[in-house]
Amino acid sequence: MTALELLIDFYKNTERQGPGSTSETIKALNLTNINKNHAVKIADIGCGTGAQTITLAQHIKGQIIAVDLFPEFLDKLKLRSEELGFQGKIITLQESMEDLPFDKEEFDIIWSEGAIYNMGFEKGIKKWKKYLKAGAYLCVSEITWITNSRPEEIEAFWNKEYPEIDTAANKIRQLKENGYSSVEYFALSENSWLDNFYTPLEKQFSAFLERHDHSEKAKDILEGHKEEISLYKKYKDYYSYGFYIAKKK
Ligand code: SAH
Q1: What is the CB < 6 Å shell around ligand 1?
Q2: What is the pLDDT of residues 1-55, one digit of tens each?
Q3: Which among 146, 166, 177, 237 would be 20 to 30 A from 245, CA to CA?
Q4: Domains and CATH numbers, the chain
Q5: Rounded CA separation 184/32 (Å)
Q6: Full-prediction pTM beyond 0.90?
């Protein structure tokens, strides 16, 4: 197995592939002023196994196109949405977020939790804007510094992992400079990181190692995650995911 195949195997058995929660998905949805009695069209980009896609389907009328690069994640979402009777309401689509087959002004909302970093926040907000109707919403979560300065160890770690990490003020400025207005923002709770993401991942560390015969590549994946988790626990007062709710002008 390649490192990528291992990573997919590592993530496909958990409910979430990034920090988040049902209540924060609903909170972000409520910060848009879409009329919940009207059918809307939503793209959920980098949906993973679709925890947030299901929550959206439970709270809107209309249709959600759930996009991810990896069929292993989409298959899980498809199964779950069929179990819940959402076939037709949730359509899965295997495409890259960098090259989407959408029409201009097709969507009322573009949703993306913990995924835009794969192409970079600025590139994403620029490229996706054309798919939104005028006055439609972009709802994205993105790793964010929540203080103006922080210890060198954590600054160095995240600048290496994702150099676009920044403060909410700078992310909001970027959104405004790129044709979005009235940006709402909140930071995800600690429980979204630990209870909903890191703890479920940790619970399957040993099964993952066993499945892959304790291979070096499998161990490397766990080591990387252990470092990230222990840094989070040490420095969680300095960063989180920010949820940005921005309206296209
Ligand atoms: N939204 C989900 C998953 C977040 S993890 C959640 O919050 O739980 C990031 C997701 O982006 C993964 O599912 C990964 O497969 C997907 N991804 C990575 N690169 C991508 C790309 N180029 N195009 C589409 N999806 C991509």
Answers
A1: 16-18, 20, 46-48, 51-52, 67-70, 73, 96-98, 113-115, 118
A2: 899 999 999 999 999 999 999 999 999 999 998 988 899 999 999 999 999 999 9
A3: 237
A4: 20-190+240-248 (3.40.50.150)
A5: 9
A6: yes
